Amino acid sequence: MRKFSRKFSVFLVGAAVFINLAYADNSTERIKNRGVLIAGINTDVEKFGYKNPQTNIIDGFEIDMVRAIAKKILGNESKIELVPITPRSREYLLYSGKLDIVAATFTITDERKKYYNFSSPYYADGLALMVRKGSNIKSLKDLNGKSIGTAYSATSRGVLRDIAAKSGMKFKFFAFSSYSEINSALAFESVDCFAADRSILAQYANNNTVILDDMLSVENYGIASLKSDTELGKIVNEVVNGLKSSGELDKMAQKWGLKN
Ligand code: GLU
Q: 25 falls in which pLDDT band (50, 70, 90)?
């Protein structure tokens, strides 16, 4: 019996050490040891996170924010590794530990807050609709029965589903892995509408398309880290709030031609 209880206490201590190691928040230590902050960013949303095809340089409002966070943690704003993400891949990459943070037009929602720390909002956008010029769709109500392309794992489908439930309208949804695929589907008439945040649609608008006036939601963007990375979440939030209160965030937004 005594032998059994000793074994049991050794097991308990082992389990406690394991749990502690697994859940200890070493997030900023991890980044400092590595010497670089790994951030998931957009490369196809001009002004926010965009890869210039001529220079291959990735830049934008959100990249400036990633730099400010690196400066705070590592004392050097250039110690960043930028990992291109899509709405579909960003949560998986964050969850599997391949990213420290996501700064990529990522809307703060109650559901997502269960899994991630979000900074306070740094930009407010809204869901909008883009259609082909000359199509008879002039506003949301003309979309009844039409097909809509959205990005996988984006908030857009949920917003439109709620609208459908309240209004009695019916939409046919098609999900895509990237915004450029939705844009092609719109151009080739596989879908009647491209639904995404207005700032994203602006990137894809051209002479053959129209962005409708409807703003269907408020999408508050926040910088996310894993819930277990408590310390990192706290620092990220401090940086965002510091940029806000010093007026630096507004200056950054202006630099990129964004109205915050
Ligand atoms: N802001 C949206 C989200 O976090 C993504 C952009 C979109 O596809 O509209 O889900």
A: confident
Whole-number pLDDT of residue 253: 95
Q: Residue of the nearest CA to atom 9 in ligand 1?
A: 196
The answer, yes or no, to whether any atom of ligand 1 lies below 6 A from the CB of 86, is no
Which residues on neighbouring strands pair with residue 101, listed in sequence order? 39
> With contact defined as beta carbons under 8 Å apart, do 125 and 198 qualify?
yes
Q: Are strands 58-59 and 49-51 parallel, antiparallel or unpaired?
A: antiparallel
Total domains present in the chain? 2
Burial class of residue 120 (count of CB atoms within 10 Å of its CB; 0-12, 13-18, 19+): middle
241 CA to centre of own chain: 18
Q: Does residue 32 carry a pLDDT above 90?
A: yes
Query: Quick one: the chain helix, strand, coil %, rounded to 5?
Result: 45, 20, 35
SS3 150: strand
> Tell me, what CATH number does 88's domain have?
3.40.190.10
Note the pLDDT tens digit of each residue in 122-179. Answer: 999 999 999 999 999 999 999 999 999 999 999 999 999 999 999 999 999 999 999 9
Full residue range of the structural domain in which residue 67 is found = 2-124+220-255
Q: Whose CA is nearest to atom 10 of ligand 1?
A: 154
Which residue is closest in CA terms to ligand 1's atom 7? Answer: 196
